[in-house]
Amino acid sequence: MVRRRQRSGVERRRFARVAEDVVVGCRALEQPTVRALTLNFSAGGVLFVGPSPLEPGTRVELRLRLPGEPEELAFEARVVRVRSRSNHSHEIAAEFVGGDAASQRALLGFIEARAGYQPDPFPRISA
After folding, report:
1. Residues 25-53, mean pLDDT to the nearest whole number
2. What is the helix (H) or strand (E) element at residue 111, kind and residue range?
3. SS3 assignment, position 74
4. What's the CATH number where 54 sits?
5. What global pTM score does this model have?
């Protein structure tokens, strides 16, 4: 009998997530770009549905166009998990490992606005 460890009610994610349908272009090295659709994303990574599975550990280039933004945001990412829904639909979780600073700032600003996150202007510092 396999026992699964139950999660406590504590949120273990480091970044706020936004559930938003955004078209993403995903390209593994030496592969054509594939169009996919995000399920959610955060400042740390993205979960999207694509037509082909990718192996965990695969490095990919991701391009996101956020609603209302004229420019695509470019990120380098590493596939961390894949769950097949059907032969032509696969949930792919990728963590960001690089990207230009402007793309990172734009994504974080979008997430903060959508998630209602407001950074504490006076963070507590433990002594």
Report:
1. 88
2. helix 101-115
3. strand
4. 2.40.10.220
5. 0.72
Q: What is the pLDDT of residues 64-101, one digit of tens each?
A: 988 888 889 999 999 999 999 999 999 999 999 988 88
75 within 8 A of 43, measured Cβ to Cβ: no
Residue located via tokens 């407001």:
118
Note whether residue 76 is domain-resident.
yes
Q: Report the number of distinct structural domains present in the chain.
A: 1
- What phi and psi values does residue 70 have, to the nearest 5 degrees? -80, -25
Q: How far apart are CA 64 and CA 74, in angstroms?
A: 7
> Quick check: is 100 in a domain?
yes
User: Residue 110, SS3?
Assistant: helix
The answer to whether residue 42 is domain-embedded is yes
Domain extent at residue 106: 23-113
